[in-house]
Amino acid sequence: MGYTVTKESIIGDVLDTDMDAAPFFFEIGMHCLGCPASRGESIEEACAVHGTDPDALVAKLNEFFAAKA
User: Fold this and answer.
1) Is 60 exceeded by the pLDDT of residue 1?
2) Would you say 5 and 58 are in contact if contact means Cβ atoms under 8 Å apart?
3) Domain that residue 17 falls in
4) CA-CA distance, 4 to 1, in Å (whole number)?
5) N or C: which end of the chain has fewer CB within 10 A?
């Protein structure tokens, strides 16, 4: 069974599951992934700060994790 991401998923948890997911966050302008504050944010919170669509990011991340399953 693969890993499933939701808008409520915490960024640190996603990255702890697979650091190869980091480029998806870089794409939305989130370059501070090592910062404790950013790692504690949900995907929805981070997308709101960066003005991007959380559903689009969740879809990309789930495609990424499904391909690895």
Assistant:
1) no
2) yes
3) 11-68
4) 9
5) N
What pTM value is reported for the model? 0.89
**Token pair 């495609």 is at which residue?**
63
* CA 20 – CA 48 distance, rounded (Å): 23
Q: What is the pLDDT of residues 8-47, one digit of tens each?
A: 999 999 999 999 999 999 888 887 777 777 889 999 999 9
Residue 17 and residue 39: Cα distance in Å, rounded?
Answer: 13
pLDDT band, very low/low/confident/very high, at 59 (cuts 50, 70, 90) = very high
- DSSP label at residue 2: -
N-term to C-term CA, the chain: 7
Structure tokens at 9: 């998923």
CATH number at residue 24: 1.10.3910
Domain total in the chain: 1
